[in-house]
Design brief:
heterodimer; A: 220 residues; alpha+beta; Rieske Iron-sulfur Protein; 3-stranded antiparallel beta sheet; 23% helix; elongated; disordered C terminus; B: 510 residues; mainly alpha; Cytochrome Bc1 Complex, Chain C; Cytochrome Bc1 Complex, Chain D, domain 2; 2 domains; two-stranded antiparallel ribbon; 19 helices
Chain lengths: 220, 510
Amino acid sequence: MSELLKYPGESSNNDLTPDGKAAAHTRRVFLFKLAVGLNVLVGAVLAVPLVGYIISPSLKKGSRTGAWIKIGDVNEFPAGETRLVSFRSPVAVFDDGQTGDIPCWVRHISGRKFQVFAINCAHLGCPVRWFAQAKLFLCPCHGGAYYEDGARAAGPPERGLFLYKHRLVGDSLVIHAGDMPTLATQASCKGDPLVQIQPANAASVTVTTANATESTSWQA
Amino acid sequence: MASLKERGTVAGLKAYHWIEFRLGLVKPLSEAAQHPTPADNASWWYVFGSAATVLLMLQVVTGILLALVYAPTANSAWTSLNVLNHNIPLGWYIRAVHGWGSNFMVAVVLIHMVQVFMFGSYKFPRELTWMVGVGLLLLTLGMAFTGQVMRFDQDAYWGLGIGASIASRVPFIGAPLVHLILGGPILGGPTLARFFTLHVFVIPGLLLAGVGVHVFMVLRHGVSEWPMPGRIVRKSTYVREYHELTEKTGIPFVPDAAWKDAVFAAAILFTVMAFAFFFGPFGPNGQPDPTIIQTAPKPDFIFLWIYAVLAFLPPAIETPTMLVVPVVGIAALLLLPIFASEGERHWSRRPVAVLTVSVIAVTLGIFTRLGTYTPWSPIMDAWTSDAVPPAYLHNRTPLEREGAIVLQNKQCRNCHELDGVGGLRGPELDSVATRLTENELIRQVLQGGGNMPAYGDALNPSETKALVSFLMTLRGKNLQPAVDASQTIVHDTQFHLPEPASSPQPRHGP
């Protein structure tokens, strides 16, 4: 043991090649392997916070993001018309700036019946525009078209417009806003493949089922 | 004085030796630079790789300069770009050089790749060099996309939305993937921060390391010799043949071959500088405010073809195409040298290779061209800005003229041309009455079909009547109106009773 620990200059096996020395120094080889293993272990432990930090935005449950917010009073929306409304996203963070202001289309059908559509085309998320005379939503990117109830009319979208959950509290129209609407959120809405941006989660939420019959035709 | 000069030279040499003894890099690097290369590849066709590297250096330098001012937060990125454009002396020029340098870098990298493919230079023993090159191409495109996001304007905002929407189509992990890309539930500050990190730290790091490996392998295997028809690459003999060729015809890479690289590098740098000077920086266009929806987002030039393809895919195969085709395409590029590592290199003996490049080039060209004028998109303001041509209203009845008003008012023009003005989404209407009869027009307008929405809910009966009577006047240059052949037959059958069965009378349509 003692001779292997000698300073290399005084070692008795100077005639060996470095590889040969390494082979002879089984204890050092063992210690080196141990140290490598130690680093793998430390690295694995370190990876947990590093990876967790990066993927943390994906870990929050989609249904728990967002909140109910008021977007206006009932009397601001004339019956039979569809209007553009913007709201400050309840999930906006400190440096979102203008990007935290989200527009949506509010359709007042009649009485206390409303529909609130996301601005994002169901094809690739571009902002759809409402054309009141043609009673169509048109998308500027790839020409997706939707009827006034949000149902797919023409173009590349495979479904109707995304709908926000909404309810009337007194005379206030409130919607549940959170995630940017994409097809993935739709996929997580089991049983209602239509439109809900958020899956219906709690019994306390009363969703206005204004167009239950119309909506079946949306799944073209 | 001469002695002073001599002493200076001696002192300089001494300093060099002092450094080189400790550093030990100058000698091996200059030896590598002067390595012998076959004289036949000292060609103007072999300059694109070095030009791409020079452009990368330009991008690194100008990128660092831009980072001095640019503020990577959703709140102030757009403002900082305008400050760069207008308030910082020469800020506009640095932005312009960085933007044009990006376009030129993508172009030169693609040309380099096509040249290597057409010359068969990816074959043995340079397969891995090609694979690393494919990675460098993808990283370059990654820089171009993330760079487009750095120009944080309307196009960047909605372009990110398109990216997230594509990601959302990935099965099972769509939602987490969208959140991972956006850095949160919505597109905003964390999104820009993520793309800034990719654009400034992650991808450039990988790119520089990849270029190092790529160049190291080029030096290790030598620059491929000029391909000759009939000179076959065989794994058993290629290395020996290459070394024989190098020994026989070899010239030092620097300076005998590299002067052309240097000239081309200077030319391309100067071209970028000139483009930047004359055409200026790219954007930013409108501020990234999603509530401003009067916008028609478009990606940068090199991604226009993807934008066009996404307009044409039928809904049913769109998601599989988006997710599968890129994987297959990249895998094909990576595996190409594995399956074609031997054989002919010269293009005249590789018709499939020539055909492949031609078809891909023409396809990309066509889709890019379509992407520049987006015939599939409605023209949002055509209904108020493009009037019905007066000639179409001459000698028309009041009802027909009322129909022209309905046509404008119901925004038909957003998708339909009259006299060459209007949207291209649907067919032009100048000669619609020669294609459809009155009944067919009514049905088409009310029920839609063939990618036209139904207007039954948007038109009352009198509007429909007026609209169709106007459309019935649109017969091009006074062509015959469309007729319904079946009606004539019905008419015939009703008014000319068929003869007895013994002598059947042939019936003719019009």
